Amino acid sequence: QLWQRGPDWLGAKENWPPTPVIIETDELKAETKFTRELFTLAVTGNDMFDELLRKFELRIGAWVA
User: Domain of life of the organism in this record (predicted)?
Assistant: First the structure.
């Protein structure tokens, strides 16, 4: 049950460590960097591993079940 619920002290909020307070200063705002990530993927052709997985898909599914 310890694995499913955790230790008793974790359920009591008064035993939790205090949440840190971050004060935004002008210096901190100047250091803040905004990032934008872009991810594209183009798939062309079939991979050998994909073909093997499709070929043995039923066997793997039956073996796991």
Answer: Eukaryota
